[in-house]
Automatic annotation (TrEMBL), chains A, B:
It comes from the Bacteria. The lineage of its organism: Bacteria, Pseudomonadati, Pseudomonadota, Alphaproteobacteria, Sphingomonadales. Residues 1-23 form the signal peptide. PANTHER family: ACETYLORNITHINE DEACETYLASE, PEPTIDASE M20. Keywords: Hydrolase, Metal-binding, Signal. This is Peptidase M20. Pfam families: M20_dimer, Peptidase_M20. It comes from Sphingomonas bisphenolicum. Residues 228-322 form the Peptidase M20 dimerisation domain. The keyword Signal applies.
Length: 436, 436
């Protein structure tokens, strides 16, 4: 998960923020009716039994975090962790457990409705940002666990397992089926490929009524806005040649530099927040040679799909203009500069309105623990359904922590806060699955 | 070798060019007396036998080129090729074959003079510009060989071996010793370290009377002027940050791009030829992060020390201006962009006068084959002795070709032209070693 910007403190404060052109109201997120629904759910004996099970299972939750963190899951290499996670799905009693075509782990919990009807997806992602060979040994100091990936998103994977076991312990019967997912490719160049597959080609794709991603590292986080992004690898090629002998020939690195300068002249709106970054470069092979190739990884993001598309057009036009200007400025005798534009990332923007039942009831679930839900924009698996207009949010993974995406990542597994979040998450999912 | 500029067509034409402030005369390069010396040498039975040996050995010369090209010799990693080359020195009968402290391959051919007297150095360089992992497989099409490094300077290494074998075949006794060298670090960041060592610390350093580098890719090339160069590694640093969250902060990569654009706007004289090249870049760690560092390797050269100094001042001023403009254009809230300018290459300029015996007799050797020596400026191993006032030139490596320093490098191994050059080179070396 990439949490980015706190967008609104909505704990009943009388402020109103316009975000991405969409007004998020300061009116209470949940209505008294929502609060009543959640109170009814929480009062059921089966739910009480499930909530008690969460408590007695806390140590197993910690053990699961340690065990899963220590199975490396580098980008595009989630297989070993997926296999272990599928075994835990089976042990927890889910039906139809499988690893799908792209590597997602799927497991169904049948409800009382007709088979094949609408369902709720609950998910956490298997992959980390860390390359192969990273030391993923977990170090425990009191209530702190330290290891790369221990929070993002192993804490989510472990919380999901705890919820599944609690539902089983309480023998809770929900009207809708719940599909639990451990998905691949959430991070970086994974480009949300696991969840894209689930919604575009997966066998459950036409049944999904609501979507939860368990991937927020704070107690009160409730991500309902998805920042969209487009990422390119731009490769500039030219004839190359001797730095002295061939002086005067076009240089692809000069074209790339001109492109970066041009791009950094593009004006973007502060709201809806829209950004670009010339992030990674390489090229050339020797100090005494005009390079034959130079490349740039470029990141563009926006809270608005329209602004993102506009930025993308402007950026690509500036890239073409830079290439043309280099071919005009120097000799193309041995060949001209050309550019290859490869799209390496495409995360759709989207939003689940603050007034949808999913957001309102989840906020009401948070409120049962005295937590004021804090809406935010982010870039998570939930972007995909948000973009399709399917209600989707990202909720807390139950372990607060810090230094995500760094080797110093840590989480706090204190029972008090963790259990609070697991209870909130359970109630929110039950409400979405139609329990009353 | 970096052959650069044809400076004067000196085949008796009545023109005079002023080069880098040094006038090169159009008077015939060699005198009738020089021509007589060369005729005498060529008429010796031992020399005739050596010249015949060159002819019968042509196919082995080609095989040597293929074999040595296919032993990678990236910058600073010439070891494997050096070992193979030393073995060939031994097989060809040289004495005192060794690999010295910096990696040069040395082999002595004793003359008839007193041990420890003056000697002539003949050299070709082992290193290429190509990084590790470059495919160096040689592709042959008729008389053309294609591969990175096949000409520069493997053709020189192979020609040197052919000359050693021919001297042995003819049992030629020269007054002076000849030290044959396969040297390291001629290219790029090698900064002539092999030949600098030979002249500054090597055990033969006080004995060298004349120096040949076999590293010119044309039949008629005779490099007697050394182009000076300055090379920098410029490292731009900034605070870095999240591509979306920290948008608006200064970007060191943008500063570097602006610097490159600025530098490519600097006007330089065509004569004395003066050039620059933005050659190699790197920086950044993740597509979703503003980089905290970007770096550039920059090459500057001139036939004139004064123009080189002027260019260096202008380039460094543009770099500073680009950094200042980035710090003005974006936020320095978390830190400003700074630049570290590290000098990584400094090749001295120098010249061996057209009227020295070495140049005159070599031109006379060329003339025995009807070739009019073409004096040129370049940046080669010969820069080092030129700068010390020791007569030094760079002569043809016997295989004409093109696209040096590119992956498309090729040479023409047609026997007719190649043998002509090998004969010229042999006679020139014999004259310098005192044979009459």
């Amino acid at each position: 998960m990439k949490r980015l910007a706190m967008k609104a403190m909505l704990a009943g404060a009388a402020l109103s923020l316009s975000v991405g052109g969409l007004a998020q109201s300061s009116a209470p997120l949940h209505s008294p009716a929502d609060a009543r629904i959640l109170a009814t759910i929480k009062a059921r004996p089966a739910v009480k039994a499930a909530l008690a099970a969460l408590e007695s299972e806390h140590d197993q939750w910690v053990d699961t975090i340690v065990a899963l963190t220590q199975i490396p899951a580098p980008p595009f290499k989630e297989g070993a962790r997926a296999k272990a996670y599928a075994e835990r799905f089976r042990a927890a009693g889910l039906a139809d457990v499988e690893i799908d075509e792209v590597g997602n782990v799927l497991g169904l919990r049948r409800g009382t409705g007709k088979p094949g009807g609408k369902l709720v997806v609950v998910s956490a992602h298997l992959d980390t940002v860390f390359p192969e060979g990273t030391d993923v040994t977990v170090r425990r100091e009191g209530n702190m666990l330290h290891a790369p990936g221990v929070g993002d998103d192993v804490a989510g994977l472990a919380t999901q397992l705890s919820l599944i076991k609690a539902l089983a312990a309480g023998k809770i019967a929900t009207p809708m089926d719940i599909l639990f997912v451990g998905d691949v490719g959430e991070e970086g160049l994974g480009d949300l490929r696991g969840i894209k597959h689930l919604f575009r080609e997966g066998k459950y794709k036409d049944r999904i009524a609501a979507f939860f991603s368990i991937d927020d590292g704070s107690v009160d986080g409730l991500t309902n806005g998805g920042v969209g992004s487009k990422r390119y690898r731009l490769t500039f090629k030219g004839p190359g040649g001797h730095s002295f002998g061939a002086f005067g020939l076009v240089n692809p690195l000069t074209a790339m530099s001109q492109a970066i300068v041009n791009i950094y002249g593009i004006a973007v709106p502060a709201s809806p927040k829209t950004t670009y970054s010339a992030s990674v470069v390489g090229g050339g092979s020797s100090v005494n040679a005009i390079p034959s190739e130079a490349w740039l990884q470029l990141d563009m993001r926006s809270e608005s799909a329209a602004e993102l598309a506009k930025l993308e057009r402007a950026v690509l036009a500036q890239v073409d203009a830079a290439v043309a200007s280099e071919n005009k400025a120097r000799s193309t005798r041995d060949g001209a500069v050309s550019v290859d534009k490869m799209l390496i990332g495409d995360r759709p923007a989207g939003m689940t309105g603050a007034d949808t039942a999913l957001v309102r009831q989840t906020a009401a679930a948070y409120a049962t623990e005295g937590v004021a839900a804090r809406l935010s924009f982010s870039s998570t698996d939930a972007n995909v359904p948000m973009n399709l207009g399917i209600p989707a949010i990202t909720i807390s993974r139950a372990a607060t922590g810090g230094r995500g995406h760094s080797l110093d990542e840590w989480i706090d597994i204190s029972p008090r806060e963790s259990l609070k979040v697991k209870r909130m998450d359970l109630l929110a999912i039950l409400a979405a699955a139609g329990l009353r």
